[in-house]
Design a protein that fits this description.
Blueprint: E1 4-9, E2 15-21, E3 24-25, E4 31-32, H1 37-42, E5 45-50, E6 56-61, H2 67-77, E7 89-93, E8 100-107, H3 108-120, E9 127-130, E10 139-142, E11 147-152, E12 155-159, H4 164-169, E13 178-182, E14 196-200, H5 204-211, H6 227-280, H7 286-292, H8 294-306, H9 311-326, E15 334-341, E16 344-351, H10 354-365, E17 371-380, E18 383-391
Parallel strand pairs: 1-5, 5-9, 10-13, 13-14
Antiparallel strand pairs: 1-2, 2-3, 2-4, 6-8, 7-8, 10-11, 11-12, 15-16, 16-18, 17-18
């Protein structure tokens, strides 16, 4: 457990402090005065005990679905126990899972005065609670100038030590044996009208620090919450929002990069498809390819080659003539295009001369069942543009 600095604020505004380590006081007696700066800096938590006579303890049965609703309803649930207007008071509620809720009430001006006094000494408490909550239930802490009596979890009172006996006589309910913790430095033995058990108590703050089991409540909530604690959630949300925005930005950048990469790949594939179409159909001009696109143009050309009939006829003819056409030297003869219609395949070729075109015709004509004729032989600047008509192929 980290070091915790325990401070006790006296009614006259003076301080006493004690450092707790692992839940135990580091010294048997508290030190009077303000804690040194190095002690404040080393403490991981600062808890201040406020004078019991300035804080009213009470309890109420309140049903609320949230803590905000609970804090709104509490003032009116105990309004009959208050001497000042609700608007002038500050309320702090204990954490409770049931409808019975403990509450501490203090004047807003008094609480603000305590905080201003502590701030002037360089002290910013993490928690502030009435010292009466550090007195065990069914016990009384007696000091030189005051006695603090706690008979119930949410009921406490203070009086002068000389008036304690008379005060106990008027209490309606008392424990079977009152725990008496006498921290006076001097004075006659106390004579109480009720059974009691005496406990040795050297120092009041050391006793309160040991008896304080956790923090039953904290007066520093709502408008009086510590500034760093109020900023904590906002800062956490701000950091989370910045991180979320960064994640979204990175996702958008990654998505944009992916779109750019896919766009480049698509452009490359389109260029490759256009090259494939130009290689398969050399007669296709650039304007026609740009206007129609590679895929639609390829599909249209294939449909023209198929002649609208079943593709098996075209494949049968092409499979028959392919060995002859494949044996032709590509450096001398270029296949310019093909068209298949109604069982007739026309092949456009560019040859160096008419003799080469006729040689190819004769080679195809030797294939069984084929009839081959030259239907076009036009002279060009770099050869002959010829066209062969092939028919008669059967399975």
């Amino acid at each position: 457990m980290p070091d915790r600095l325990l401070l006790r604020l006296a009614p006259d505004g003076s301080l006493a402090w004690l450092l707790q380590r692992d839940g135990q006081p580091s010294a048997a007696v508290a030190t009077a005065g303000d804690p040194p700066a190095e002690v404040l800096a080393a403490a991981t938590g600062i808890v201040v005990l406020a004078p019991a006579e300035d804080v009213l303890l009470a309890s109420a049965r309140v049903s609320a679905r949230s803590r905000a609703q609970l804090l709104q309803a509490l003032p009116y649930a105990i309004e009959d126990q208050l001497l000042a207007p609700v608007e002038d008071l500050h309320f702090a509620a204990a954490r409770s899972s049931g409808e019975e809720v403990g509450v501490a009430v203090v004047a807003r001006t008094r609480l603000q005065g305590w905080l201003d006094s502590l701030a002037g000494r360089g002290i910013a408490p993490d928690a502030l609670l009435p010292e009466s909550l550090a007195v065990p239930v069914g016990a009384v802490l007696v000091e030189d100038t005051r006695a603090t009596l706690r008979l119930d979890a949410w009921s406490a009172s203070t009086c002068e030590p000389a008036a304690l006996a008379a005060w106990l006589e008027h209490c309606a309910t008392l424990p079977p044996a009152l725990g008496l913790h006498d921290a006076r430095r001097s004075g006659a033995p106390l004579s109480l009208p009720v059974p009691h058990e005496d406990f040795e108590t050297v120092d009041a703050l050391a006793f309160l620090g040991q008896a304080l089991d956790g923090l039953p409540l904290n007066l520093l909530e709502g408008d009086f919450a510590p500034r760093r604690r109020r900023r904590g959630p906002r800062r956490a949300w701000r950091i989370a929002a910045v991180l979320a925005a960064a994640v979204v930005l990175l996702a958008l950048l990654d998505m944009g990069g992916a779109v750019l990469r896919l766009s480049r790949q698509s452009a490359q594939l389109e260029a490759q498809a256009a090259d494939a179409v130009r290689a398969a159909f050399p007669d296709v001009d650039a304007g026609q390819l740009a206007r129609l696109g590679a895929e639609p143009l390829m599909r249209a050309r294939l449909e023209r080659l198929q002649g609208g009939a079943d593709s098996s006829g075209f494949l049968q003819v092409l499979g028959t003539v392919a060995p002859v056409l494949g044996a032709v030297s590509p450096t001398r003869v270029q296949t310019r295009g093909m068209e298949y219609r109604s069982g007739i395949l026309e092949v456009a070729l560019r040859t160096p001369d008419v003799a080469e075109l006729d040689r190819i015709r004769e080679g195809l004509a030797t294939l069984p069942g084929l009839a081959v004729e030259v239907v076009q032989a036009n002279s060009g600047s770099d050869g002959i543009d010829g066209r062969l008509r092939i028919s008669g192929a059967r399975p």
